[in-house]
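Encode chain A's predicted structure.
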Amino acid sequence: MLNQAPTRNNIIDMIEAIFTLHGADSYLGEEVTMAQHMLQAAWLGEQQGESEAVVLAALLHDVGHYANKLPPEVLMSGTDNRHQESAAAWLAGFFPADIIEPIRLHVAAKRYLVTVDPGYRAQLSQASIDSLALQGGDMSAEEVSEMEASPYLDLAIRVRRLDDQGKDPELATPDFGYFKARLARWLLP
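Encoded structure for chain A:
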């Protein structure tokens, strides 16, 4: 199914296929699987009262690892697979900017927070610190200004913080089906 071109009629099934086919994959040095990570990020967002757009962006933030020509493992071997760009590009024709832009910016949000919040780096897992170096490390003053000019900065930071929290091997969540009808409601016409 993932070899097909995505359409409005099949994109949610394609996303579900990612969770089914790749959900048990290791999450790049963390103690959770890819599915656990994305589902936890979304579930925690819901539990914390985040908007539905933030919850769904958190659910989808890492699908770019599989909608990408570079597999997720390349991060572990020292190459940035730019999964945030792949996810945003793959999903952009189907969901609004309130979901797409926080996905596209979730890596930049990590770089931003490391740069502007002195305590943030200490909250990151070792795997997230390792990938930070590949993703560009601290932002320059110019990059900080660009990030602060984005109307999606707040949403991106919210998704980033959920991304950071979604790494608990003991946290149970609903499966992908729990979110499926919500995704369908957010599909662009």
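The two ends are 22 Å apart (CA to CA).
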